[in-house]
Amino acid sequence: MAEIVLLHSALGLRRGVEVAAGILRDAGHIIHAPDYYDGEVFDELDAGLRKRDAVTYPELFRRWKEIGEGVVRPVVFAGFSLGALGAQFLAATHPMARGALLFHSGVPVREVTDGGWPSGVPVQVHYTEGDPFVEEKEIAELRTDVGEGFERFVYPGDAHLFADPDLPGYSADSAVLMWRRVLDVLSRESPDKRL
C-alpha cells in the first residue's frame, strides 16, 4: 500500500481524476486528490490553459508547495499533464517523496528545482508517441537527471490525456495497460521505502 498525492491537469479536478483515484484506491492505496484550481473544471483545453495562465506559474508552484506542506508521511507524487509538473516538483523537493508518477508530461529537472534529482526517488513517465505536449529530448534529459529508477512507457496514438474516459482521445487499451504498470511499480516495495 502506498500513499499518493494525485494532481489534476489544466482541466481541473474532473471526473477522470476521480476515476483514476478510484483505480488506485481499489488496489488498496491511500489517495489525496487536491484541487489547486479554485474549484473550476473545464472541458476544453484552451479554457483550462487560460485558467493556468491567469493563476500564473509562480502561483501554481506556491500552491503545489502548500499541498506538499500537508504531507507528513512517505508519499508518491503523481499528476496528469500540468499536474505532472507539480508532482515532479514535489518529488524533487519534498523530503518524504518516495517516487513520481508522471502522466502525459515530463521535463528536465532544472525546470522544477536547482537542486538536482534526489537519489533513490524513482520516476515513471507515461505518454503517447505523438503527444503534441511531450518533447522526447526533454524526456531523455529527465532520464539522465534521474538515472537508475527511471521508467518510460510510450503508447500508440497522439492523444494527450489518453487515460481520461470522458475525453475524445481516450484509449481504453492504453489506459488499462498504463494502470497495470502503475500498480505494478507501486506493489514492488513497501510504502516507507522508495516506489
Write down the secondary-structure element order: EHEHHEHEEHEH
Number of strands: 6
Strand content: 15-25%
Shape: globular
End-to-end Cα distance, whole Å, is 10 Å
Helices, by number, come to 6
Please identify the structural class as seen in this structure.
alpha/beta
**What's the helical proportion of residues?**
25-40%
The major sheet is characterized as:
6 strands, parallel
Uncertain stretches: none
Radius of gyration: 15 Å
Strand order of the largest sheet: 2-1-3-4-5-6
Q: Average pLDDT, to the nearest integer? A: 95
In words, what does this structure look like?
- By secondary structure, the chain is α/β, with parallel strands linked by helices.
- The protein has helices at residues 15-26, 45-55, 57-69, 82-93, 136-146, 172-187, and strands at residues 3-7, 30-32, 75-80, 97-103, 123-128, 150-155.
- The protein has a six-stranded parallel beta sheet, sandwiched between helices.
- Helix 5 (136-146) links the parallel strand 5 (123-128) and strand 6.
- Helix 3 (57-69) crosses helix 4 (82-93).
- It is globular and about 40 Å long.
- The N and C termini lie close together (10 Å).
Topology:
Elements: E1 3-7, H1 15-26, E2 30-32, H2 45-55, H3 57-69, E3 75-80, H4 82-93, E4 97-103, E5 123-128, H5 136-146, E6 150-155, H6 172-187
Parallel strand pairs: 1-2, 1-3, 3-4, 4-5, 5-6
Helix pairs in contact: 3-4
